[in-house]
């Protein structure tokens, strides 16, 4: 099994002018193709910053981050945008669906940005919605769907570009217990089918569904929750 994501000594420092905030303090992380990893941490631990780095929404201040064999820090803004569109599928707590568009059109959006022909866009979006059990709801707008169904649309949108990695940021934070179980069951199915999944969460029941859990505290990553002492708050 090959390595999909590799971080070595990754640091992130935010310079506000008056002070510098070190959000990540030497992160070492390796994730293989087909892994299902949960990254846990409390508010202020650095997990949001780490998610932004993994998702190519930001770049490290120091250290090395390779995604699918490419060093992220060497990529231009346009190249980073292409990586986000083609190699990464994002699932967010707030769903991030456009309320004026149908489920079908919301799922098609990454393909629109990628310049895919309309007929192919429609076909791929329909397949993605069927994969998450919403083939019969493709003409519904987000306001006509439950929270769990909206998150399934979000997962379908993440899948539609056939990404190397699905990155889910607190994906069940806005869901009830039944919808949470349904989404986690869907992640299990996707991982069993070979998808690589990274979930950012502070919920133990969500992390327990992953194959591996790592913990982040004050910008340090560890396999054990108690290994890192408090060193001050990170972003």
What's the topology here?
Blueprint: E1 3-15, E2 20-32, E3 36-40, H1 47-54, E4 62-67, E5 70-71, H2 77-86, E6 88-92, H3 103-113, H4 118-131, H5 147-159, E7 165-169, H6 177-192, E8 197-201, H7 204-207, E9 212-217, E10 220-222
Parallel strand pairs: 3-8, 3-9, 6-7, 7-8
Antiparallel strand pairs: 1-2, 1-4, 4-5, 9-10
Distance between the termini: 33 Å
| Residue share in β-strands | 25-35%
Largest sheet: 6 strands, mixed
Tell me the structural class.
Answer: alpha/beta
**Shape call:** globular
What strand line-up does the widest sheet have?
6-7-8-3-9-10
What's a concise summary of this model?
By secondary structure, the chain is of the alpha/beta class.
Overall description:
With 235 residues, this protein is an alpha/beta fold. The chain contains seven helices and ten strands. Strands 6-7-8-3-9-10 form a six-stranded mixed β-sheet, with helices on both faces. Strands 2-1-4-5 form a four-stranded antiparallel β-sheet, covered by helices on one side. It starts with a strand and ends in a 13-residue tail after the last strand. The model is unreliable at 226-235 (pLDDT under 50).
């Amino acid at each position: 099994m090959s390595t999909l994501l590799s971080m070595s000594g990754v640091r992130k420092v935010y310079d506000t002018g008056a002070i510098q905030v070190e959000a990540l303090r030497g992160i070492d992380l390796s994730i293989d193709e087909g892994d299902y990893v949960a990254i846990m941490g409390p508010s202020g631990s650095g997990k949001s910053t780490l998610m932004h780095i993994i998702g190519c929404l930001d770049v490290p201040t120091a250290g090395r981050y390779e995604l699918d064999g490419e060093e992220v820090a060497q990529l231009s803004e346009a190249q980073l945008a292409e990586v986000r569109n083609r190699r990464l599928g994002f699932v967010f707590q707030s769903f991030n669906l456009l309320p004026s568009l149908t489920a079908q059109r919301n799922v098609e959006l990454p393909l629109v940005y990628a310049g895919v022909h309309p007929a192919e866009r429609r076909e791929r979006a329909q397949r993605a919605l069927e994969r998450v059990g919403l083939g019969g709801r493709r003409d519904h707008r987000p306001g006509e769907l439950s929270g769990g169904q909206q998150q399934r649309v979000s997962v379908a949108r993440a899948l539609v570009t056939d990404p190397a990695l699905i990155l889910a940021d607190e994906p069940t934070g806005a869901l009830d217990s039944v919808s949470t179980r349904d989404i986690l069951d869907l992640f299990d199915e996707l991982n069993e089918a070979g998808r690589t999944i990274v979930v950012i969460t502070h919920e133990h029941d969500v992390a327990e569904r992953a194959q591996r859990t790592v913990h982040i505290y004050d910008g340090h990553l560890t396999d054990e929750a108690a290994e890192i002492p408090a060193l001050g708050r990170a972003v």
